[in-house]
User: Fold these one by one.
Assistant:
Number 1:
Amino acid sequence: MTHRLIATIALLLALASPAFAADPLPSWNDGASKAAVIDFVARVTKPGGPDFVPESERIAVFDNDGTLWSEQPVYFQLLFALDRVKAMAPQHPEWKEKPPFKAALAGDMKALAAGGEHALLELVMATHANQTTDEFARVVDEWIRTARHPKTGRLYSEMVYQPMLELLAHLRANGFKTFIVSGGGIEFMRVFAERVYGVPPEQVIGSSIATTFEVRDGVPVLVRQPKIAFVDDKAGKPVGIQQHIGRRPIAAFGNSDGDLQMLQWTAARRGASFCLYVRHDDAAREWAYDRESHIGRLDKGLDEAAARGWTVVSMKSDWKTVHPPVR
Amino acid sequence: MTHRLIATIALLLALASPAFAADPLPSWNDGASKAAVIDFVARVTKPGGPDFVPESERIAVFDNDGTLWSEQPVYFQLLFALDRVKAMAPQHPEWKEKPPFKAALAGDMKALAAGGEHALLELVMATHANQTTDEFARVVDEWIRTARHPKTGRLYSEMVYQPMLELLAHLRANGFKTFIVSGGGIEFMRVFAERVYGVPPEQVIGSSIATTFEVRDGVPVLVRQPKIAFVDDKAGKPVGIQQHIGRRPIAAFGNSDGDLQMLQWTAARRGASFCLYVRHDDAAREWAYDRESHIGRLDKGLDEAAARGWTVVSMKSDWKTVHPPVR
């Protein structure tokens, strides 16, 4: 306890120092979006204030793809699946002639897209299932530490949004528990969410495939099955939130129509709540897309945000920087 | 922050005072079980020690029925369902003649048991589904605050095990995150787990029925469906742990064969781990049952605990008190 005591006192002294009064969101330009975030946090943490929320109920939920990191040209987890197909190909000579695998190996995105959802699902299952949870985690860990984005050449973990990292930290510094609620794979994100976002595995919610418990040669393992168990998107997001958290968030952050129900569920809370959409309008520094996009379409959500006064962040004008600086 | 700062400093002063050296498990008799618990916590929290485990990985999982509170004459959630059938009967005149409901209304447990699992499932669905999550939580809250156990006449929340409350607190005081992993209903337990056990909703794992997101008259709701989604028992427990926590526990506490896979999964962790079974051998102060019981059978688990050197707590000889004193 002595060790923790000293560490905690050091932390308290640091918090009490004038430096703590510094801007908690330095990568955000001054403006309505930044002010709305700062104001909300101040209101719900003010003891005795009309909007005060006890610390145990300060639950904030974040979409991942397009909200915490980029999602173009396609969701990064799909790029992981394509990289895996290539890495696994030597053990699967039959893939050379088999439709979705053939297209994947040739990098023929057009042929892949023509195969539709079924083709993608086949690729995902071939690369995500039929292995233990520990084996899968090792493969993802190796990939996230080495694979590079096709356009920027950066590690995928460097394609996170610096302003959102600051927002996560600001919320946690004010007693919030931050959760990821993503359509992406729960076990995929958990491998890096703690290191990259400061979000521990038990606060990551996502889509999942079925797993079964087996004892192999006396060793218990969990085996990933080629069967969808849960799709954490659209109406699935409030369902996933209830299943994992069991209480309603007071703040929700997304970037697409897939997040709309999560924001609606949060906004319908009795008492203070905060909903924010990140809008991709920065073709120069990131990508620009919304109502017509196949990836991360933001159409109904944009209308509802306008009607209900939710905060809509313009990446172009609200953010000083998008990704963390190159080290 | 100032408010939290003061509270935290007060807490630190309290922790640093000699009182903190007091026995953390006062309701446990001195002996091998108590010593094993105390020793394990000391080892994994000793910085630089061979068994040290970082705080983020100090995950402890507890079964609920028979491990944290009693489970006789039947699981308390079944008594809740029976109470609900009675309360809902005026709105369901047809139940008077319909088999499982007729038996439930007459308190005819023999007829109920004869209906088997199917009859019980029918009662559970009739009382647990077709309502919103908020409505269900209100009903459970009212019940847990007023309903009384048929034998002891105490509130169900008073039929928790005082020594286990102390164990939960001791683990949390040493940086552990405590989770409930129960075959009982996740939404049922969440209503009282924080108040009764100090375990917040997001750290409760259990069986569940499906829910769907709907917008009713502009208000988003989650509706509980009469369909089993997940059974958190036996091989389901490691699956539920992985799904909700995403990392392996270092300590697991149970009382029946339904907990065996959870203990196996925990014991197979690389590094220090701790597994404990509570044995119901106290007919005078609680109930005595194990290998032959229909409720909370402990048979294979007892053999495996002996073979692997897991701690087996005798309620009769290891615990000074069973339930908290009557106030």
Number 2:
Amino acid sequence: MKSGTILLSHGAGGKLSHRLIQDVFLKAFKNPFLEPLNDQAVFPSPGKRLAFTTDSYVVSPIFFPGGDIGKLSVCGTINDLAVGGATPLYMSASFIIEEGLELEELAKVVESMAKTALMAGVQIVTGDTKVVEKGKADRLFINTAGVGVIPDGVDVGPSFMEPGDAVIISGTVGDHGVSVMRERGMITLDVDVESDCAPLHELASAVVSTGFVKAMRDPTRGGLITTLNELALSSGHGILVKEENIPVKEEVRGVCEILGFDPMYLANEGKMICIAGKDGAKDVLKAMRKNPLGKDAEIIGEVIGERSGKVLLETSLGTRRIMEMLSGEQLPRIC
Amino acid sequence: MKSGTILLSHGAGGKLSHRLIQDVFLKAFKNPFLEPLNDQAVFPSPGKRLAFTTDSYVVSPIFFPGGDIGKLSVCGTINDLAVGGATPLYMSASFIIEEGLELEELAKVVESMAKTALMAGVQIVTGDTKVVEKGKADRLFINTAGVGVIPDGVDVGPSFMEPGDAVIISGTVGDHGVSVMRERGMITLDVDVESDCAPLHELASAVVSTGFVKAMRDPTRGGLITTLNELALSSGHGILVKEENIPVKEEVRGVCEILGFDPMYLANEGKMICIAGKDGAKDVLKAMRKNPLGKDAEIIGEVIGERSGKVLLETSLGTRRIMEMLSGEQLPRIC
């Protein structure tokens, strides 16, 4: 079954669809909620407050250094739950496949999803497959949705932010963006940057347990500055960050200088922005750095009582400027 | 905002993405769970047992008689929850848009989703938007995922099926398939068949409350026969249906004869197959017919103790033959 290409009949709901489900999806995702293959998965409610999220993934190319569209789709949904303070538990996976995709490539993506989900303790419990004619999609698009539970006592969100809170980033920014550029052949230099694509639920849980976390976000599409703008807008406060404190890998900085990109606007897929109460900032930083995914964490700025809804960047020269969300498109189909 | 076309920047996560979310999505779907625009929606757990489902929609064209891709995407997820005995409550909506789609068309689809969700008491609480380059998708693909609650005491599923149970269909088959063929210009006759696209949660709840329902399924892609095959496989029993009892509109029969399709394999988007205990079959039929969406309901056959996993069709001449799932593709991108 794993050789050959995807045909329109694989999406028709008939014999080939069923064989694809059995041989590729069920084999990789195997769990008691998925196995009945009903139109819906049924599970006991895991707690009082649930978190629910979805994202579609259209990254091109579908394989890149450090990951692939499958790993990305599982990490993305895990991370959207984790930054809400939730423990990710159940996930759906839906595939839109362009006719002609190699079955072997699909299987590789699916196995990558299964591996990532297993590592994170998440079960893929329901799904769907559609196939469109050649030229009507671009190889493979994946949607995942996820359900998690918010443990009792955990309350995070931009509404808790206050002036004086510290702004912490869990590591270097721009790695995912540069890894995709590398795979696209946009970079002629020999750079060794891999995507940071990773599930952040353990890091999130570790920082939340310090008791000092006000809000978390993962700075994906639009990068650090866009996500800080969202936090500023949602909280109604200003945010001031110091450029020299923002961790950026040398190779990433180099590539960005040559190609005219700003690493602060490049997508990350395994980083977290954490807003922490002033008195607890060092504890949160320490908790982050204990986790391999947070080893390069830095306090990069603070929430301020002025410039409501805006993000200010203080350069190494001490000047300040407002950093807005991008108005154009920096790098399409980065996730 | 509602004039113009979709640009790549609408999917970049920056200013245009935010404006699209505010002016199109938030305006249509407005509810307190969506409004914080966090990466995840948080809601109180609605009960002890939850149902979770997802489907992607790639129907072409995106508007057809009786519906559009938006209505379809909301009904489809509602129905996948409803046939599991669940009350649909929360939904996600994720859009993959081809650059160049008219904003007006997107808004029309989104309004159709909002209207259908409102009617069904479902809230669209989280979502995502991606834009791909012209030629890399076909106008608009939508994914919806849904969460519902299974009321205490409700237990349905193929494992409850027994020989002797009645097989009931809630109305005429093949309407959706023919409506899409009509919109594609495949039919030169003047036929007035609309898609049956409709949310089935009230019909499902009405039949379940009779206490005689063993299992339910909505016969979408692959049609009545494919879905009966799934029920036969999952239950381990055989299913015998009488051709003459299967309701088919005259126009649908006519179109199928001319074009060489079988209405029993054509997709439906507002029909339900219900397996009911023998003694309660008439009660279930009565409950169905009271609902406008079940007015043409018929008992079409029974679960049998032989031919495990197979579907038998008894023709009007009294001969019986095995009806398998389709092995090819009858009509691509029907949903």
Number 3:
Amino acid sequence: MDGADNTLSRADLEGLSAAEVRQVIRDGRWTGTSKRHALGREQANIVILREEYALDFMRFCQRNPKPLFLIEATDTGNPEPKMSAPGADIRTDVPAYRVYRDGKAVEDLTDIRHLWRDDHVAFLTGCNLSVDQVMIEAEIPLPHLISEPVWPSQYVSNIACQPAGIFNGPQVVSMRPIPKDLLVKVIELTSRFPRSHGGPLHVGDPAAIGIDDLDNVTWGKPNLVGRGQVPAFWACGITAQAVACEIGIPEMITHKPGHMFVTDLAVVDPVR
Amino acid sequence: MDGADNTLSRADLEGLSAAEVRQVIRDGRWTGTSKRHALGREQANIVILREEYALDFMRFCQRNPKPLFLIEATDTGNPEPKMSAPGADIRTDVPAYRVYRDGKAVEDLTDIRHLWRDDHVAFLTGCNLSVDQVMIEAEIPLPHLISEPVWPSQYVSNIACQPAGIFNGPQVVSMRPIPKDLLVKVIELTSRFPRSHGGPLHVGDPAAIGIDDLDNVTWGKPNLVGRGQVPAFWACGITAQAVACEIGIPEMITHKPGHMFVTDLAVVDPVR
């Protein structure tokens, strides 16, 4: 029960509304991962940048919607994502943050009010955890939904992003082992949710996308690909953090991987 | 045959590739509307702004995807939409342009190279003409597909856009009369194409969205709503031009309504 207040379990947070989950987090009562939080609500990766980088980063998201589908960009200096989570505060409502300076992760925090600036813009991008409820309803046996300590495995692939301004780098992918007889169904299902990375980028051969050793994860935890299973790789929102490292951007504040922001958007709402 | 070179008919342009259509336009051989051009390819509304307005306009598009689904934003100063139409030149490849200054339409042109600046950003947003091929294949009898001089009727509605920075104003809608027994099918079909405005904003009662007189169009041409038909209203990309007028922006260069830019994107390609 990573980072949980001893009065709260992950099961407690499954059934809460998104606003209730955010309040629990704002109150400092949950600093763990957001797996299964407010099931059925869109979870988001967070990237906070100074406005001078905002137009290029927005073009970068627009050109790379598989890893970085843009759910919202806040008004400059305003920490409220008023479209997707009215009333929320992006500086306090994420379970944990990671601060990058000059392309290096320098600090993990649970509150960033002291770092917020009048020229900051917060970007919310899609996250695969959003479709967990869909996977549960469709009875897809994803390991991270079945076993508490398990987590999707995340790797830096050799698939390049489409650059925009200074933003350039490799796509990060998340791997889930899928039973072969469910593979088409999983591709069909995830393809319906382009906001949450859509269908996989690649299926089958890790080496084909530059991953030599599935045990050597960059984020998350290794997952065993068992007999009769195939590794499937989806684009991942941590791509923004890999890019921050690649280009050595002076400052980028993000969520800590796995510790997402929960929006009010229903995952089943159409993209529009 | 509005604006056609006498050696070319609209039927000639239906079967051309998007790149071929753009070359015909660049050569000055077609200055008419883009109806049925390169059928099956995504057509785009164009908005060109100085970079100082680009971040706010991009947030405006992101918050209003029904009228302004963002297909691409070019690099600042670069007139090539390299994601959706590599090799194209946004300054010459649109059949006709409209220039707004201080919120007023001041000039229509067929080439804007002399107006292009190093700090210009071009935005391409979705257009309903893109789904004409879908409608033809599905045998939906849309008047503008059946009769050459007919055009969808366009109105300023009382539905407000979500504001972003200085950008604020009403949504423009386009009306098509739909046979009642095909209405659900048309809604289902258009809902599959969120890049091209998706499903309608409203069906049935023009007055409910602020339209008192269907004969009084702002753009396009009046369409008769016959017996057994219902007026259906889709969000329209001309919204950007209505907003330019509303806020009196110093400069906005757009396509002339109905005279769209044809991208290489297949309309049936998934949004991703």
